[in-house]
Automatic annotation (TrEMBL):
This is G/U mismatch-specific DNA glycosylase. It comes from Prauserella cavernicola. The gene is mug. It comes from the Bacteria. SUPFAM superfamilies: Uracil-DNA glycosylase-like. The keyword Nuclease does not apply.
Length: 181
């Protein structure tokens, strides 16, 4: 596959799933909303070039350098992993139904019980609110836990979430990193 998926490859990625990057005992399990078509076409989480997850992860102090999405397999060596609330790829997160998000929250709870990360970080406040029935939740640490695991909610790093600047995203990631150390 070329570095940038073609329009046909992106269209063909609709509804695909990509593998989690997960293992027992991680320091932080990051949970995205669902993979976009770019991620579905490449098989890498947060793969669209405008997504700010990888820069925020580095600038927040989790990795010594900015990883490329194709290097996601290195995350467990830093005690990190990635999963999603909903596994299927879509062009936009708003294509997901509330029922899918709630079912994804139940699946995530089972996954967290199995793998026991020290902290769960859900990346996307709106999806978290829907998945877990917390309409007034705000970004940051949550009082609730998921399967006895502390929970932190981060802003969605999509380039479409423009009111969160790269610096502000990095600061949120840095606060999470400080809390988990």
């Amino acid at each position: 596959m070329p570095d940038r998926p073609t329009a046909d490859q992106l269209a063909a990625a609709h509804g695909r799933t990509i593998d989690d990057v997960i293992e027992p005992g991680l320091r932080v399990l990051f949970c995205g909303i669902n993979p976009g078509l770019y991620s579905g076409a490449t098989g890498h989480h947060f793969a669209r070039p405008g997504n700010r997850f990888w820069p925020a992860l580095h600038r927040g102090g989790f990795t010594p350098r900015q990883l490329a999405p194709s290097e996601q397999g290195e995350l467990p060596s830093y005690g990190l992993g990635i999963t999603n609330l909903v596994a299927r790829t879509t062009a936009r997160a708003d294509e997901l139904t509330a029922e899918e998000l709630r079912a994804g929250g139940e699946d995530l709870t089972r996954k967290v019980a199995k793998y026991r990360p020290r902290l769960l970080a859900i990346v996307g406040i709106t999806a978290y609110r829907t998945a877990f029935g917390r309409p007034k939740a705000v970004v940051g640490p949550q009082k609730e836990q998921v399967s006895d695991t502390p929970l932190w909610v981060l802003p969605n790093p999509s380039g479409l979430n423009a009111h969160w600047t790269p610096a502000a995203l990095a600061e949120e990631f840095a606060q999470l990193r400080a809390a988990v150390q």
